[in-house]
Amino acid sequence: MIGLTGGFGSGKSTVSEEFKRLGATIADADAVSRKMVEPGGPAYGKVVRLFGRNVVKPDGTLDRHAIAAKVFSKTALRKKLEGILHPLVRRSMEDALAKTKSRIVVLDIPLLFESKMTDLADRICVVWAPRSVRYERLMKTGRFPCRDIRDRMKAQMLLTDKRRLADDVVDNGGSLAHTNAQVRRLMAAWKRSLSV
After folding, report:
1. Which tops the pLDDT comparison, 161 or 142?
2. Which CATH class is domain 2-34+92-195?
3. pTM confidence score
4. What share of residues in the chain are helix, strand, coil (percent, to 5)?
5. What average pLDDT does this structure show over 15-40?
6. Is 104 within 8 Å of 190 (Cβ atoms)?
7. What is the pLDDT of residue 84?
8. Segment holding 25, helix H or strand E
9. pLDDT for residue 124
């Protein structure tokens, strides 16, 4: 089991997609979180109680942008939300691991260290990119104001610290071809280790 993480804008989703293309099974914590807060989901009512009805859109779904704007500027509120979601995500990941027959499973968990889920993985892979590159990429998307980018980066563990704690690092500061070549090498190495 491989724990895949990174930092805001580091390109973890790109790396995850390449692992999937190469045959790995992906367990995506973000997808699990989104499902948990859908109407009728196990976290929906708790999140509405935490943030109030003003984060509920007319169709009954949660306004994720409004919630993000609140949690990334208020640490205490973010911790409460994480207290609701992280245990549910962990259980979902544990269930996925118990059911899978795949030889290589990548646990795509943005907050792998922060949520204390590293024990679920045999190895940890961090997707790294320089802060300036991450910031530039995020600005180009047009989805995040400068302040939001700074708040989200600040809310996460430093990427340099994650890199130091990793077993494997994918340097995603350059071209896509360079990144994918590293992913292919890692996938080949992981497969070799399983056949020993």
Report:
1. 161
2. alpha beta
3. 0.88
4. 60, 10, 30
5. 94
6. yes
7. 94
8. strand 25-28
9. 97
Rounded Cα distance between 180 and 184, Å, is 6
Q: Which two tokens stand for residue 144?
A: 């995040």
| C-alpha closest to that of 93 among 55, 139, 135, 36 | 36
Q: What is the pLDDT of residue 91?
A: 92
Q: Where are the domains of the chain?
A: 2-34+92-195
Cα 157 to Cα 43, 72, 108, 162, 182, distances in angstroms: 24, 13, 16, 7, 24
**Alpha-carbon gap, residue 7 to 18, rounded angstroms:** 18
pLDDT at 196: 46
- Stretch 22-44: mean pLDDT: 93
Rounded CA-CA distance 92/73 in Å is 28
In angstroms, the CA 32 to CA 17 distance is: 16
Task: Supply 41's token pair.
Answer: 């989901």
